[in-house]
Structures are given as structure tokens and as C-alpha cells.
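User: Predict the structure for this protein chain, please.
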Amino acid sequence: MLSFKRWLLFAALAFSARLQAAPPLTTISDTLFNADGTPFSGVVTISWPSFEASDTSNVAAETEQIQVNGGILYVQLVPTTNANTAAIYTVQYANLGVTLSSEAWAVPPSSLPLRVRDVRVAPGAITGSGPAAATLISIADVTGLQNALNVRAVIGTGFSASRSAVIDATGAIDGAVGNLTDCLHVDGTSGPCSTFSTTFIDGETPQGTLDGSNAAFVLTNVPSPTTSLALFRNGLLLRAGGDYTVSGNNVTFQTGAVPQPNDILAASYRLSVSIPGVSFIDQETPSGPVNGVNAAYTLSQTPSPSSSLAVYRNGVRLTSGVDYTAVGNAITFGSTLVPQTGDTLLCSYRTAQ
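Assistant: Here is the predicted structure, written as C-alpha cells:
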């Protein structure tokens, strides 16, 4: 029969062996707060499935409740990120018996204490360890995967990094073919970019003597088109063909419209302006009888944008919303501003092609 001393020795050795067989632990130590900034007090419930730790220790499934006072959380857990079998901790926060929130923890091995943020798993994330040996899964093993792949575009034979992407006739994604300075068209082709000019001449003073008898004046450039010329005398828009004529860059005033000393002349016009998708309508006379009764007039096209419309009555530019309203290509004058017999109406605007 063993002596009492020997029995104590065997017991100590057995207890020491059990301690040595215990799996490694990671400490999670943090301070928890409520949304209003006050320390959290309540119960943190941590549960986990059975799993095999990295040192082959078998961890039984269990649930542990930790009382948190003043926000202080302290717990030691077996790491799961390097476990031999997949495992994750489910954590619930409760106060007064009511579950407030829940989250998942993936605990890595660490000799230093970790905070909750170090182990919290983002919603939707996949984590944990798996079997050491990889298992090959074919596309056919995943229900619906092949159909999902069939509707996704594949890389075409002409695919190249740093090129504009186009979809070829087979539905594959290819790289656009062409020079780096080319423009890409909606049909996937490429070519030289269209060029356009945007030369506008605004507020130019025609050259000529203002003496009441000289009728010939010269512009710096030739208006293109000629109808783009808007010639103002003392702020009033003059009528081409009625008050003056234009030939090249020469302006000749009609008898009775010859500028007088101290008059102010200003000319605005374009020089072969070409803007893709934009056209200009210059000094159009809207359709409708000018008889002192009719207030409704119609333009040949719809201004786009509507704010580009400029309406002149006897050379004076009218104010939209005050003197008239414009909806689409229809112009309606106010009841007290109906054009009278002999009045001249001219409209200039832009349209979208």
C-alpha cells in the first residue's frame, strides 16, 4: 500500500500533467461603453461549439456568462483562428435580461491582451480555420454557379490593360483598337476625334467714321454665317436687309439709317462655329399675324436650352416671364404687350441636334 507521501507525489504529478495539457489561452481585456458614453454594465454571454484547438486539445461546447461592471470586460478564451477544426465564438450583450446586441468573435493566438475590436468579426465575413487538407470542389458541385458564370462577361482575345474596354460581338470584354489620341464611339469603333471651333466675336465696334453721312463700316472678321451678325445701334438691334446690308466683312447702312455723330455701334457674330449636337438659329421672324390683337407666335424649332431664346421687338430685347412666356416653340405675349401692326419681331436661339 502506498504511503501518504507517495500518494501526494503522484497526485501532484498528475495535476501538473493536466495543467501542461491545457490549451493555450488568449486574453481579451477591454472597456465597454453605451452609446451615450456611459460605461456598460450587464452580462456578456459567450458560447462556442466543440472544436479541436491548435495543440489538439478538445474544447467542449459550452456557454459562459461574464458579469461586466463599470464597463470592464476580462475573459480568456482558446484561440480559434488557428484551431484544427473551424470554430467561432458567439457573443451576446444583455442588460436587465434583455439582449441588446450580438456579434461573432474570431480569437487569434496572442501573448498580449487583445481588445474587442481585435477579435470582432465584421457582418458577412467568413473566418475560422478549416481542415489541413484542401478539398477540391468543382463548379458543378455548387448549385447555380455555372449559370451565374454563363451570364458574366469573359475576357476577349483583344483584352489589354490600360485600354478602353469594349464588348465584342461574342459578348466578351475586349480592349479598344486604335491610336491613343482617337475617340471611342458607342459601337466600339475608334477614330480621330471630331474637331470644332468656338470662336465668338462679342461687342466689336465696326470701323468707320461717325459723321452722319458715312454709311460704310468694316468688321475685323467676316461673320460666318452672315446671319450670325447682330448689329446694335445705341442698344437697339438693327434689321439685316432693312437697316443695313452685309458683304464679307463690310457693313453698309441704308439711307435713313446712317449712324449719326455720338451714336454707339456694337457688333456680335460667329466665325464658323461648329459644336457637335448644337445648332444656332439667328434673327428668325416667328410665325403669326402682327395686328395688335394676336399674342401667340410660333418658332420653327424649340429652343434648347429655353434660356438661349432672345426675343427682340423693334430692336429692343424683351424679358422672358415679364414681356412674354415661352413653352416649347410657342411664344405668348402679355395682354398689354401684344405686338402692334408694323412692329418687327426677331428671335435668336440655340437648338439641340
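The two ends are 111 Å apart (CA to CA).
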